[in-house]
Amino acid sequence: MSTLNRLKNYAQKLKKDIFVxxxxxxxxxxxxxxxxxxxxxxxxxxxPIDLIPDFIPILGYLDDLILVPxxxxxxxxxxxxxxINENRKMAELLKKNSKPKNWFVGILFIIIWILFAVWIGxxxxxxxx
Length: 129
Known about the structure:
Elements: H1 3-15, H2 18-24, H3 32-46, H4 62-78, H5 81-97, H6 103-128
Helix pairs in contact: 1-4, 2-3, 2-5, 3-4
């Protein structure tokens, strides 16, 4: 098995735990640092917009293969095991029903990309005028 395939399998395995994080950041037994990391990971994972769009060759999948799994892994290490175990059971039910969307983060990424496009446009305009 190639390294890329192993990395993809690992990323898919960790993405299953995103629902565990979704439930764990709402749990009062989760430490504050773990909640902050979990909120950031869940918000990004449920966002309809990627930080790096998938149509960009190679880099487009960087967040799916590296950033999200690393965030999930870090958050899971910060959350107590008993919280994770309890929320795994509830996450199975949640996964079957629906996937929440975080439209705030989606809109934030759209604004970032628009600002980036305007900035690039201004640079190009200055170069050619």
